[in-house]
Amino acid sequence: MAGLQRRFRRLFHAHSGRTVLVPLDHGLTEGLLPGLEHTSAFVDHVARHAAVQGVVLHQGAAEVWGAPRLALDQRLVVHLSGGTRYAEPSYRKTGVCSVDQALRSGADAVSVHVNIGNRFEGEMLSDLAAVRERAHSLGIPVLAMLYARGPAVADDQDPELIGHCIRVGVELGADVVKVGFGKDPHAFAAHVRACPVPVVIAGGPAQPNWSAFLDMVATALDCGAAGVSIGRNLFQHPAPGQAIGDLCQMVHGQAGNDCHG
């Protein structure tokens, strides 16, 4: 599994050991979100920051904006799950791309979205398991995005639910697990300590107070998070290039100042 290990290691900064991933898969779900009207320009912002490890895009967007525009030492993570906000229920995610197609689109890794706490969780868990089997057979790392969403979920920021999401990723063999940070740092830290694979935090909706958002990121890192996977708080920031730089410096320290050319 030398290929898998090598690709996995490239998802993390050589000096800090952490990762900054920028998900840009929102268009399938939400349509033309503010900040993504000129996706190519935003990807160019990302490409200039050597301390960003990669972006997450669906297959078509990966071929149009990802593979041609990212720096060669940045990773392209092709997202294999999808669904629009108009679906009933909107938390159901289905497979929209195969691992093999993702590779043809330029993928260095793949990602899968699973929502637990609803009647479709079995389908989504099955999708994750199948993707993991195929991806690992080809030496490709798998990022699992795991959230508690559905009728059985009263509070998706419940620390125990976030911990359960982390454990689901471990049990099904994900190489990196992405979850929300929640509202209890001590509980988050305990779940991360019990997790044998890296855990990265989601950014969620764009926050009005950028300084407070960075403080949240710092707390998550102190609790053991291996990095971030943050989209809207970057591409909807008034100065996205500066925001990317701020975030990279927060995650990687002094090494986060690296820029391409």
TrEMBL record:
Catalytic site: Y147 (proton donor), K178 (schiff-base intermediate with dihydroxyacetone-p)
Keywords: Lyase
EC number: 4.1.2.13
InterPro entries per UniProt: Aldolase_TIM, DeoC/FbaB/LacD_aldolase, DeoC/FbaB_aldolase, FbaB-like
Keyword Lyase (UniProt): yes
PANTHER family xrefs: 3-HYDROXY-5-PHOSPHONOOXYPENTANE-2,4-DIONE THIOLASE, FRUCTOSE-BISPHOSPHATE ALDOLASE CLASS 1
Name by which UniProt lists this protein: Fructose-bisphosphate aldolase
Species of provenance: Desulfohalobium retbaense (strain ATCC 49708 / DSM 5692 / JCM 16813 / HR100)
